[in-house]
Specification:
3 strands, single chain, about 80 residues, about 15% strand, 3-stranded antiparallel beta sheet, alpha+beta, 5 helices
Length: about 80
Amino acid sequence: MNPGLAGEFDTFLRLKERLDQLAGTISGGEQAMFSIGRGFMAAPKMLVIAHHGYVLSQGKVVAAGDAAALRNNAAVRAAYFGKN
């Protein structure tokens, strides 16, 4: 098993139970977990989940809010775009 995939199973315990299940039969929340886990497997410095309004860094929520609040957050702009 891919080491990154194994790590995501540690983060999202429910996903391992769903490994052999057809994608169309898992819940929306479980689909979101798979999407987030897939993003983390690339080992990003920051993962922006715009739909849900969260900014994650190293697996922790570092900012939350609507699009305008995140767009105007200097720390998010600096980390994501490399500028203020």
